[in-house]
Amino acid sequence: MTFHSAVCTILRREFESYFLSPVAYVFLVIFLVLEGLFTFYIGGFYEREQADLMPFFAYQPWLYLFLMPAIGMRLWAEERRSGTFELLLTLPIPLPAVVIGKYLAAIAFAGLALLLTFPIWLTVNWLGDPDNGIIITGYVGSLLMASSYLAIASALSAITKNQVVAFILSVTVCFLFLVSGLPMVLDVFTAWAPEAFVLAVANLSMLSHFDSLQKGVVAFSDILYFALVISLWLWINYVVVETKREAG
Amino acid sequence: MAKPSLFKGLLNRPAGQITMAVILFLALTVLADRFLRGWQLDLTADNLYTLSDGTETLLASLDEPVVLEYYFSRNLAAPYGQLLGYGKRVEDTLRAVVAASDGMVKLSVIDPEPFSEAEDDAVAAGLKGVPMADGSTLYMGLKASNSLDGEAVIPFFTTEREKFLEYDLVKLIAGFNTATKKNLTLLTSLPMQFGPGGAEAMMSGRAQPYVLYEQLSEFFNLQEIAEDFSEIPAETDVLMVVHPPALNDDQLFLIDQYVLKGGRALIFLDPHAEAANPRAYAPSASTLGPLLGAWGVAMPEGKVVGDAALAQRVQMGGLGPDSVKDYVFWLGINHEFMTDDDIVTGSIDNLNFATSGVLEQLDGATTQFQPLVTTSAASMLFDASRAVGMPEPDRLLKDLKPTGISYTLSARVSGPAKTAFSDKAAADAGPVNNPSVSEGDINIVLTADTDIFDDRFWVQLQELLGQRIVVPIAGNGSFILNLAEHIVGSEALLGLRGRGIAKRPFTVVDSLRREAETKYLAEEEALQKQLQNTEMRISELEAQEPEGGAILSTEQEAEIEGFRGQLLETRKALREVNRSLRAEIVGLGKWLAFINIALVPVLIILIVLIRLWLLRRRTAE
């Protein structure tokens, strides 16, 4: 079995497994209802009378903070709890393919959830004449942010059998990535760390990278940032699973 | 050889591998942020984040080197994501400017740390800083200079002008090319130089020139001529006449001759200039006597245009949704009603006109008449007197019977024309080197509104750190500057000015609102009248109260009681009408919210139920 087909097999198996229990449907319903409520009632989408999706994207970083760890928490923790972890690792499939396949399944599920928000795009195009270029980059940014959260959640799901613990750990780390540019986090470092380090931490903030994508600009540095976050956490994921396998 | 094995050992351990990955990650993100920020794909409709062709042409044509010093307190800005992001964006744009200038623009980026020499330099250059909580000051400004001692600054880059960043930078650099500035001669009776208070305001230090006057001064050598002028300066490149005072024949003849001899002119007339005196009880009109006729154009006297489709919504006294009305004399003109293929209007998204007149081409005119801005077909002409005093928006809207004509508000007029003063031209031969002519090819632009110059119709003004921040809400400024630059033949900034002023309203909601208002207006008016009548009748009856405080007759009391009941009924009905006015719009909002919040989730639940049902049936079988 080639690496590519191994990834596809795992992806399909994982993606289908989402829909075996009602949890996936419950998740989709909660996600869409919350997204709609935030857009219309907190963001004042209709009252603003502006043909853009600013209120739709504005609350996504905070919404994803809880919803993405909820998708990611079961990726490995569930396998370890139910005892299928060992079985999975004995299959003649390279470990990186399993890590990537599982992760891509989670992204596919999150992407499906995002895709199901299409009525808002139809709505804004019916109501006025929006700049669809900005909307496209907004969606790209949104998917990249969701993917980054999922990579974190996937890695942290591998270190514990308990899904709740995985969820709490993921929310905490995602939160740090979200707010790393805010004064409350940087103040911790400014007193003792060199300025270059403080700037590096400030640069970690997902909010600022998502912000420029929301404005209609796809900057290579922003895309690279998300790619690096995803690569780092998938690497951690791999190292952790490999260690557990070796430990037996 | 202990070290390599230690390193190898570290890499073999999971913790070591993760630590190395984190360090690599941090390093790469910092490097990407430093060196790769310029690589980007701009998907905005206006290409807001990409240097325009006009900018590149202008930068490539610079003949004097320009030095830019960008002062940005990067470390102090670090905790403020939006500010840090904008500061970086300014830096990126500056680098792009340098790259496009073929070595003529040099840039240095300086972080003026607190109490450093760099901070002193920033202050000396005239930059403004934001005081921070810890006593330090955050700078984000630009100093530009050239070898001819020219110096200019942007004291602080405010995020409010983010959309105009490129324009501001290019304007600053272009400003050094003073040798190429053209001469603009201005004749106006509007208080453009000193603002609404006129010269008195200047004496008391309150003078605030029109934003457009400032902008014209930046791009042209602006010379204003007095109302009693007796000559048009010979070096004039473009003559701008804005709401002129009443001119005598000699003065009109000067303009006539200037235009016939090929002089470029921008003429702005108005059947009622609101900016001249907002509290006027008679229209403040301007005209150029027989000149328009000689140019083959007419502007119907004493007529202003009302347009139901382009009417702006204005607050007419009071608060709440009922006080916001469509005012058919104030037009918010979108790009659809501007000539798309004219370079002047090509990049402009919207214009605001107020109590504008209209222009018509005369039968048998020898000149060409090319409309630049028009109304919609849902418009008609009103007497200008209806625009003064306290106009009633509802009544105007009701009286508006669309003529189906798209009236022209601004037009280019060019081609052969004859003098309006043939006797004068024949008799007064003029000086030998500049003899009078009786015909010639003209090239002018006529506009039937002068309120487009007034700040309140097109800009929002804010104060920040002592800077006047101008945020355009309509393209009026771009339109006028574009006209002036295009007519004298320099066009570098034309495409740049209009970028980013596009408003994207909910057109569906706007048309719903208009339909509802037309539908309920008559009903509301009838009820208002009934309310007034009832109130009058009650006060009449109460006035009949006999002297000495004797009691009213039972019939009278009953009548008053009856009228009071009627009054309450009418008020209730009126409230109902007002509610109906908004009901459709509010209803649409609720529907859209429902569709976006519940539709897909409901479908998902249905799919789950159907699947469960199918599963159960299959199990039963």
TrEMBL record, chain A:
Main location: membrane
Subcellular location: Cell membrane
Alphabetized InterPro entries for the sequence: ABC-2_transporter_component
Transmembrane segments: 22-44, 56-77, 98-122, 134-152, 164-186, 217-236
Membrane topology type: Multi-pass membrane protein
Pfam families, per database record: ABC2_membrane_2
Keyword hit for Transport: no
Keywords: Cell membrane, Membrane, Transmembrane, Transmembrane helix
Organism domain of life: Bacteria
PANTHER family in alphabetical order: MEMBRANE COMPONENT OF ABC TRANSPORTER YHHJ-RELATED (PTHR30294), MULTIDRUG ABC TRANSPORTER PERMEASE YBHS-RELATED (PTHR30294:SF29)
Protein known as: ABC transporter permease subunit
Record organism: Kordiimonas pumila
Automatic annotation (TrEMBL), chain B:
Residue ranges of the TM segments: 591-614
Domain ABC-type uncharacterised transport system: from-to ranges: 191-482
Coiled-coil regions listed: 513-544
Keyword tags: Coiled coil, Membrane, Transmembrane, Transmembrane helix
Domain DUF7088, residue spans: 46-136
Keyword Transmembrane: yes
UniProt superkingdom: Bacteria
Protein name in the entry: GldG family protein
Species: Kordiimonas pumila
